[in-house]
Amino acid sequence: MRLTTFANLDVPGGRLHRWTTTAAGVAAPHTTGPSENERFHLDAVADGASGWLAVTFDIDSPTIDLVAMQRAFEAVLDHHEVLRAHFVTDGDGTVRRLLHAPGDLAVSVAETISDVDASTCKDLIGTTIVDGCTALSPASHVLAALEHADTTTIICAFDHCYVDAHSLAVIAEDITDAYRGETLRPAGSYLEHQAAEAGGELSDTDARIVGWNDFLTATDWHVPEFPIDLGVAEGEFAPARIHVETVLSAQDAATFSASAADRGIRFYPALLACLAMATRDLGGPEKLPLILPVHTRRTDTWSRSVGWFVANAPLVLDASNDLVSSMRSATDALAAALPLAEVDLTTVYGTFGHRLRKTRHDVFMVSYLDYRRFDGLPTMNVHHVSSDGRADTVQLWFWRDENGVHLRTRFPDTETASTVVHTLVDDLIRIASDQLRHGHASLLTAPV
User: Fold this and answer.
1) Kind and range of the H or E run holding 432
2) For residues 380, 159, 188 and 407, what is the CA-based torsion angle, rounded to 10 degrees?
3) CB 276 within 8 Å of CB 326
4) Average pLDDT over the chain, rounded to an integer
5) Distance CA 370, CA 240 (A)
6) What is the reported pTM?
7) In terms of C-beta density within 10 A (0-12 exposed, 13-18 middle, 19 or more buried), how is residue 136 classed?
8) pLDDT for residue 439 is more than 60
């Protein structure tokens, strides 16, 4: 798996096929309205933000069966009901979800353009995605295929309302399975999950509300932003750029993880501790507040489900001591923070909004996803592709796959930010590598 943006996606020339998806029948109102993530996203798109996600993956053949791919995409649309839904806004501003029945969404015969050079091909794919992905009309998803050399690359894109990062991996595997004529693996309903997740009002004495209060008190009521100057004034943006590096090889990651586990330290918090130390080394604070996007696929029922299964947990990392102490602290802090993700941000803003101070549009967030659970991905050359957009703070995505642990850092395109981010990531990698091999009181030499 590779995480990138469209601007950084390598698109070769070749023969381009594009399909169109249309909806028949009448979409029925659904009792599950927009989730909090979906509401925030729709508002951001209405304000001009870009809002799609795409996945590309390879089929090991210089040509593909166009009808089989058409049928495979239809099968996936039928299989995951959220992909058959869309939103409408009533005159009073109420946003409602409508749902088409299985079989209502049809994929057209492919339109083919032969002998397209790389630049034109990328432009055509980009235009198709931007014009074709929206949550405000039915069947607004993109399917394309690019035959080049000995390989065919499949491109699927969706409005973010329909998918998260985990969903893209599921869709890549599902389309491949359906294309081969295999039965799709069972998947729970995202809409049923959302209905079940809807909770009642929480009192101010609820432990989770108290936890958010403690977090915000620790930040002096500031919404987390990256604590080092990036050359972007408050209220301003710059085009978003990314920096991608491998943090640990597969072998080093396995050793690091096993050594940490032997000492009661979890792998992801250990990486977060390295981040906290690297930030401190750059002149940041010893206490680093941030937000963690947390997947809500808590049981196997949802492991093959498509939808936006993400909540948010607040976390303060402590880099005031040595690294192993920071790793232990991060492990404990993450365990305490996860229940706080059960409080939606609407409740957080409703409870504390009058005291919050938010000076940036973006929030300092750090994500993690382990793709090793997907058995089909290693041979598929899969890319998670985000829209490019704009940025005013740093956001980071750690991911683990069969090749190791990697980090994508998104930042505003300024000279200052570029220097900060490259230095930060280099130092994070050094800290993790030194701790694994040479550090004092390292994971390898200082068991509890």
Assistant:
1) helix 415-437
2) 50
3) yes
4) 94
5) 25
6) 0.95
7) middle
8) no
